[in-house]
């Protein structure tokens, strides 16, 4: 019987790194995924509420400022072509 694989090597976020370094084989990872139980019926919707109402507004202002800079560059380019 094969030695059990350390569970930290099977984490979806890091398994590629561990496969490249030889800590876990692709076959071991696929076997692990195939053996997982389907628990999708246990899932529940999640709602997230932001406490800081100004947070969204700050992001919008940053995008507007970036757009203004681009518009100024275009005006300079068209003015020099005349």
UniProtKB/TrEMBL annotation:
<feature type="compositionally biased region" description="Basic and acidic residues">
    <location>
        <begin position="9"/>
        <end position="41"/>
    </location>
</feature>
<feature type="compositionally biased region" description="Acidic residues">
    <location>
        <begin position="50"/>
        <end position="82"/>
    </location>
</feature>
<protein>
    <submittedName>
        <fullName>Uncharacterized protein</fullName>
    </submittedName>
</protein>
<feature type="region of interest" description="Disordered">
    <location>
        <begin position="1"/>
        <end position="82"/>
    </location>
</feature>
């Amino acid at each position: 019987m094969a030695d059990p694989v350390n569970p930290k090597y099977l984490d979806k976020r890091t398994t590629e790194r561990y496969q490249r370094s030889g800590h876990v084989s692709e076959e071991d990872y696929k076997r692990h995924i195939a053996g997982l139980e389907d628990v999708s019926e246990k899932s529940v919707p999640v709602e997230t509420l932001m406490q800081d109402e100004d947070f969204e507004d700050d992001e919008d202002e940053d995008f507007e400022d970036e757009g203004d800079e681009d518009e100024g560059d275009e005006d300079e380019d068209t003015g020099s072509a005349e």
